[in-house]
Structures are given as C-alpha cells and as structure tokens.
Amino acid sequence: MVQSAVADEVFHALANPTRRRVLERLSVGPATVSELAAPFDMQLPSFVQHLSVLERSRLVKSKKRGRVRTYEIAPERFKVAEHWLTERRQMWEARLDRFDNYVKQLKQKESDS
Q1: H or E element: which one contains 21?
Q2: CA distance linking residue 51 with residue 49, whole number of Å
Q3: With contact defined as beta carbons under 8 Å apart, do 42 and 89 qualify?
Q4: Which of 30, 55, 90, 96 sits CB 3.0–4.6 Å from 72 for a disulfide?
Q5: pLDDT per residue over 33-86, tens digit each?
Q6: pTM, entire model
C-alpha cells in the first residue's frame, strides 16, 4: 500500500472520538469486545464497526478464542502518524527559523544605519 494511503487509513481511524477512546483503553492492555463496548452507549453492531475500522487501519489486532474476541494495540502503525506529523513539524520549524533569521537581519540593518 502506498504510504499516503496508509496515512489516510490511520488518520481516518484516529479522527473518531470513540475509536480514540478505544485506543486509550487498549493502551492499558488487551480487552475483549464486551469490555471495550461497556463504556459506550451504542448498539454492539455499531461499536463493532469502530473496531473494524481500527483493525483495517492496523492500529489494533485481534485474536478469537472460542466465542471471545480480544483486541490489543498494534503500535507499529502509530509510527505512520508520528512520521507524518514529525515531517510537518520540521517543515514549519524550518520556516519559522528562516523567518526569525530574516527579522534579525532587518533589525541588524536598522541598527547599522
């Protein structure tokens, strides 16, 4: 999959507050579907759709033992979002550094004249 398509999937999954809360819960440790769904006031099929989006984006992975499906964080995909955000931050920091240098040069010219 092309890197930007992967980033699109990850950011789509992260864009929803329910999915972010699920990820926060899973950062503590693995949990079953019913444990994950308990704090949310929604029907189970709707909640499972959120889990499906998270699993398609590969932010989580699941294992089924008998009738119980357990989810856990898959930290590798978070690096996609982290990398994208780091690139944007570095680009803006470089622009602000160039602007800062320009302003310093202007001030120096003013004080020299």
Answers
A1: helix 17-26
A2: 5
A3: no
A4: 30
A5: 999 999 999 999 999 999 999 999 999 999 999 999 999 999 999 999 999 999
A6: 0.80
